[in-house]
Amino acid sequence: MELLVARNPDPDSSLPYLIRVPLAGGLVFRAKDTWPRTKAIYCHPVSDDEWPADAEIVERVALKSCVRRGAAIDVVADRGREQRSQIVFTRARGREMVFWQSPRTRKQARPDVRLPTARASGIAGLEIVVDAHERYPYSFPGQQVTTTRRGLSCGDYAVLGPGGAVVAAVERKALSDLVGSVSDGRLRFALTELATLPRAAVVVEERYSSIFKQTYVRPATIADGLAELQVRWPAIPIVFCDTRALAEEWTYRFLAAARSWAETEAVAAERIGGDSALADAPAAPPPSTAEVRRWARENGIAVPDKGRLRPEVHEAWRAAHRA
Q1: Residue pair 290/283 in contact by the 8 Å Cβ criterion
Q2: Which of these, 100, 253, 257, 308, has the minimum number of CB atoms within 10 Å of its CB?
Q3: What is the pTM of this model?
Q4: Is the pLDDT of residue 117 over 70?
Q5: E strands present in 94-139
Q6: How far apart are CA 140 and CA 298, in angstroms?
């Protein structure tokens, strides 16, 4: 597997090189340079037909890995130095742009271009769905978050993607609940359900060392059980936080990053190639009666204080949210 760099045969082009990335049958870009050494390189995607049959190869870079991850392509060269780089698809000044960057040049990237760093502070008004059965749920104080109570099929906190599907969820565990669910096998089934989502995680409101202070269960049994679960489901991290507040902060950051990723994943999959993880995302859980009742009153629809709502009220809610 090689990344090829050739001279651009077009003498009028301001981008003197062509690069061919071995992904999705071969992606071709016009580029400003042969590798991002001192600054991020602007690239322009072109069709595969633009790669000349008698290309003048400038450099052949053997690759260990070339994988699309969201709106970027991670490229790892098979050499001792300058082996890592990333081709990032982003938007700036109202149009799509591509930059080729390395760890050395990442902080030197153009400040007026929004790169997909997936920082929670970059999302205003993040909406988090809280499971209706969650007792004493997180309120995310100090963050720009709105919460909605619904019955989640798995996880305690979730975010919805642009199309309304569940794109990520977090299962919250206190230490006693973690120990009990590992001992009786409940956590194994919970991870099986979380694995049906594009992104998922388990957050524990305690530090890992507390496992070895247990007196009513062998600490090694819990530690071995957690290790086995991580081997079986490596894509679902089990994260230990020292306190409830830190676990709440981590949950907020994870869900915001997943929401940001979901906005670019489908577009990137279409442009770069390959299947999108969002294709199999489950549909959003239906609203609770209390949520529909509150919405109806905010929109001037008369509803009773208690009891079931008329079918036309639910249909009005669905019609409004489809729009």
Answers
A1: no
A2: 308
A3: 0.66
A4: no
A5: 95-101, 126-131
A6: 24
